[in-house]
Amino acid sequence: MNKNGEFISKDSQVEITFRSQKNANRIIDKECSNLFCLVNYLCTLKNMQMKRIAAKYLFAILIFSSPFLLYGQSGPKIAYKDYIEKYREIAVRKMHEYKIPASITLAQGILESGSGKSALAVNANNHFGIKCHKEWTGMTYTMDDDEKNECFRKYASAEESFDDHSYFLTSRPRYSGLFALDIMDYRGWAHGLKSAGYATNPKYAEILIRIIEENELFLYDNPSKEAIAEKPARKVKEKESPAPPKATKILKLTPASLTFVEIHDGNRSVYINNGAKLTFAKAGDDIHAIAKDFGIHSFQIQKYNELGKRESITEGQAIYIVPKKNKSKEGSHKVSNGETMRDIARFYGVKLKALYKMNGLQTGHEPEDGTTIKLKK
After folding, report:
1. Which helix (H) or strand (E) holds 96?
2. Would you list the domain boundaries of the chain?
C-alpha cells in the first residue's frame, strides 16, 4: 500500500492497482476477462498481508462487477476455443517432432499466455513465459516478474515460441523423465512438469489437467490420427442411410480414465484403480523390467495380473503392482464383445479368483455375452 492509500501488487504481466470500482473494471476488462484468471492471479501472492487485502478487493469486485464477469464479451470458453482453433495444428506438428503431448502444449499456452492475450504474448510472441537464460542470443523483452526488469525471450512469430518451448523441454535434463511417459498420459506430464519446477504455482498440474479435460484437448494426443489437427471439411448433404448399430464400449483401462498418483523414480507413472496401484507397459517392456523398477519380484507381477508364466505383455497394457481388491465399488457388469472374466477383473481392479467365487462359477469358465457378472456381494 502506498502513501495515497492504493493497494499495488505486481505479477509477470500486469501492475494491478485497486483504486476504485471503475478502475477495477478497467483492469479486469484489459487483463482478466474471467473470474478464474483473477482468482488464479491472487493465489500467486506470497505475502499474507497482501493476500488478506487482495481478498477484500476481490469481494468488492464480485459484488459490483458481477454483470461484467458473467456477461463479458470474451468469456474464458470463447477465448480458449479461439486459441485452440488457432494453434492446434502447430501443437500437433510439434508433438510429432518432439514427442510432447499436443494437449500439454496447448494447455500450457492457454495458461501461460492468457489465451494469447497477455502482454508477453502480444508484445513478444512468447506464449510459454520462457525467460532468456544464459544461452539465449535472440531478441529479448523486458518486464517485471519475480524480480524487476526480467529478461524474456522474444520471437518473430507465435510458431517460433511453440518450437522453442518444445526444444526447451527436450534439451533440459530435469524434464528428461517426462519423455519416458506415454504420449497420451497428459496427467503424468502435467504432474511431471510441476515436479520438475516448470512453475511455482502449487496447483499448476491441476490447472493444466482441468484445461485439458474441459476442452477435450486429449483428443489431439493420438499420434495415429493425423487428420485431427485439420479443420473439418464442409459437409455436403447426402441421402441419409440407416445408422449403424452402436458399438459397445470395449473394456480397456487408459491413463485418462484413472486417477494419477505419482511418477515413480521419474520414469513410470502410477495410477490407482479401485484402490489398487498400477502402471502402463511401455514399448518393449516385460514383467521383469517393471518388477525391477518397482522393487518387487516378477512372480508378483504375474500373480497380481493373473499372467501365465510365458505370457508377454503389450504396450499400453495396465499392469497392477499391488494385489487387486476382493470386490468393486460397482455393483455388476453385463458381458459383451466376448469379454473374459480376466478382462472384467482387470478393468474393475478385482481379483479373478474372488470374481469367480462371488458369481458361483468354476475357475476357467467364461460367461456368454449378456450375462450379468456381480462385482460385489
Report:
1. helix 76-98
2. 7-71, 77-229, 255-374
**What would the grid cell of residue 131 be?**
525467460
Which three-class secondary structure state does DSSP give residue 90?
A: helix
Instruction: Determine the straight-line distance between the first and last CA of the chain, rounded to whole angstroms.
Output: 63
pLDDT in tens, the chain (377 residues): 344 444 343 333 333 333 333 344 444 444 444 444 555 545 554 555 555 555 545 554 444 444 334 334 445 678 889 999 999 999 998 998 889 999 999 999 999 999 999 999 999 999 999 999 888 888 999 998 878 899 999 999 999 999 999 989 988 889 988 988 888 899 999 999 999 999 888 999 999 999 999 999 998 987 555 434 444 433 333 334 444 333 334 678 888 788 888 887 657 889 999 999 999 998 888 999 999 999 999 889 999 999 987 788 988 899 999 999 999 999 999 999 889 999 999 999 999 999 999 999 988 899 999 999 999 98
Q: Which CATH architecture has domain 77-229?
A: Orthogonal Bundle (1.10)
User: What are the helix and strand counts (H, E) for the chain?
Assistant: 13, 10
Residues 165 and 159: their CA atoms lie apart, in Å, by 10
Question: The domain 255-374: what is its CATH number?
Answer: 3.10.350.10
Nearest CA to 323 out of 366, 370, 274 is that of: 274
Measure the CA–CA gap between 273 and 69, rounded to whole angstroms.
39
Nearest to 14 by CA among 255, 248, 33: 33
